[in-house]
């Protein structure tokens, strides 16, 4: 019986997450952890300049455009200069929640929360090359369902206290270690991550760390926030538990 079969038969009877699970397996080459930026809710005014500063401060794999409470026309207007900045720097531009907006502006993909649609639907709307991510909270079952439905990445969290959004779920660092042992689908760690606490999440095997306030609220500016995160992601405490390419 596979791990997924155990969950499908009776999730309540699934094995408890073993913190040492990944250590039972040998080297599993995987790319180094990368940075995934999430926008603040306010992306007007001087935000394009702030985004450019962040992107120019160090490698960033993806930027998620996350706004609330505005109509799609206004969201598209705000997104367009940010999309251009990302395109110039070869940074993936991901829209939070809204498949229709992602299609309208030609974004690289969409991130779906639970209840915001399924990966198969997003694939139909956005096409075969779209990058589709799914929020899975602290649930291995949700992650396996998302991967089976065609998600390009799964997101686990929150790992720490966060003021960016209300959270009901707390993920353990054993979760990305387990996931990267059993699946090739990349995982994103999110929730309260900053330069001071990112090391154990990176060491556990997260493929990406997603951050917002650690960059946009950094006292020395977003560029300093990105540089601090990269220092934390590459320090001795962030050394992978398994060899990485």
From TrEMBL:
Annotated Mg(2+) binding sites: 97, 116
NCBIfam families found in the cross-reference section: thiE (TIGR00693)
Catalytic activity: 2-[(2R,5Z)-2-carboxy-4-methylthiazol-5(2H)-ylidene]ethyl phosphate + 4-amino-2-methyl-5-(diphosphooxymethyl)pyrimidine + 2 H(+) = thiamine phosphate + CO2 + diphosphate; 4-methyl-5-(2-phosphooxyethyl)-thiazole + 4-amino-2-methyl-5-(diphosphooxymethyl)pyrimidine + H(+) = thiamine phosphate + diphosphate; 2-(2-carboxy-4-methylthiazol-5-yl)ethyl phosphate + 4-amino-2-methyl-5-(diphosphooxymethyl)pyrimidine + 2 H(+) = thiamine phosphate + CO2 + diphosphate
SUPFAM superfamilies: Thiamin phosphate synthase
GO MF entry, a single one: magnesium ion binding
HAMAP family named in the record: TMP_synthase (MF_00097)
Signal peptide annotation: none
Family membership: Belongs to the thiamine-phosphate synthase family.
Alphabetized UniProt keyword annotations: Magnesium, Metal-binding, Thiamine biosynthesis, Transferase
Protein name: Thiamine-phosphate synthase
Annotated source species: Sphingomonas lacunae
Binding site for 2-[(2R,5Z)-2-carboxy-4-methylthiazol-5(2H)-ylidene]ethyl phosphate: 162-164, 192
Co-factor requirement: Mg(2+)
Keyword Metal-binding tagged: yes
Cofactor annotation remark: Binds 1 Mg(2+) ion per subunit.
Pfam families: TMP-TENI
Catalytic activity, EC: 2.5.1.3
GO cellular component terms given for this protein: cytoplasm
Domain Thiamine phosphate synthase/TenI: 35-215
One Gene Ontology term from the biological process aspect of the record: thiamine biosynthetic process
Function: Condenses 4-methyl-5-(beta-hydroxyethyl)thiazole monophosphate (THZ-P) and 2-methyl-4-amino-5-hydroxymethyl pyrimidine pyrophosphate (HMP-PP) to form thiamine monophosphate (TMP).
